[in-house]
Amino acid sequence: MLKRLRRPTTLVLTTLIPASLALAACGEGEGELKGSDAFSLSGEVGEAPAVDWKGTLAPEKASSTVLVEGDGAEISDGDELLMDFALVNGYTHKVDYSTFDADALAATVTVGATEPETALDVLTAAVRDAIEPGQKLGTRIAVTVGSDVLLGDYLGNEAVAGMAVSMDIGNEDGLLFVADLRSFVGPTGTEQKPAAGTPGIVEKDGVPTKLDFAGIPGDSGKLKVTSLVVGDGPVVTKGQQIMVNYLGQTRTGKAPFDESYASTPFTAVVGGPSASVVKGWSRGLVGLPVGSRVILEIPPSLGYGKEAQKDDQGKVTIPANSTLYFVIDILDAADVEAAAEPEPSESASESTSESTSESTSPSETASE
């Protein structure tokens, strides 16, 4: 039997022997309580839960309870959801992660999915498995699970191991998740009739696949923002991080040069000195409410300018001086966590460097 590696916080899971051995169960520890016997919960859906601990949470197989039954739309297998959740460590009683914080974006989860795509997908797998078709948006779920059960098969993955270390999760901690099923991934708000001259959106199974420029006048040479859905969420402010789905295309392009709808939502900072997108995104999206779907027409001066963009094989995907068109769904927005003050440097030397990117992602060229 292996000694539990709960503490110290310097635990490096990537140096352990293979996960199948390193996370072997040691049995219930002295003084540990099972499931909801270890805590009580309070708080409203949409707000961070308050946890009153009665003891240490035992690491066991996943167990879930519906705390609040929602009254929103019914959920089906395969639906992609936006979910707010708090992860509380049942050993330390500390909140290890919370999307209820102002500087955190919601998580996405696909109902019925079996293969995780990101480290966060691995972390939230027990919550995903507790979501059942027929439940409704607005539901709040509590899930308890041992870290050995949840993460054991994936600790050979550097990203998962690093995440566990950064959250101070030991190899046999009891974990508590409280999750709110917030909305479907997509625009939420009031539909608007598109302005004349707006490209059409070609969809497959309700998902944008390309833009249709048939009968649409030439490029205007200006930044144009056309709202197709006016969102019902908070307004995006300068310097925030946003989560979006998007598709980008040029008028002459036979297919999109980039899109996120078929993979995972894209995150970026818009506006301000830390902006990580082309200026057209920052100027076009700041001030719009979360839940909006818009089409942006971005002139070259606010896009990639005279620089042609190429893919990994060196093929030009966006010619120089191209006007860029995007359909964008604003899914969430959050404040950017303040960076820690840098330590004073003992060296008086400084260096600067410039780099250029050949990626066509809107995150790769810069700023506002």
Automatic annotation (TrEMBL):
Chaperone as UniProt keyword: no
* Signal peptide as annotated in the record: 1-24
Q: Where is this chain compositionally biased, Low complexity type? A: 345-368
Q: Does the keyword tRNA-binding apply?
A: no
Superkingdom per UniProt: Bacteria
Domain spans labelled PPIase FKBP-type: 239-334
Q: Which EC number(s) does the record attach to this protein?
A: 5.2.1.8
In residue numbers, the region (Disordered) covers 337-368
Can you name one GO molecular function term for this protein? peptidyl-prolyl cis-trans isomerase activity
Q: Hey, which family's this protein in? A: Belongs to the FKBP-type PPIase family.
Q: What is this protein called?
A: peptidylprolyl isomerase
State the species of origin.
Nocardioides caeni
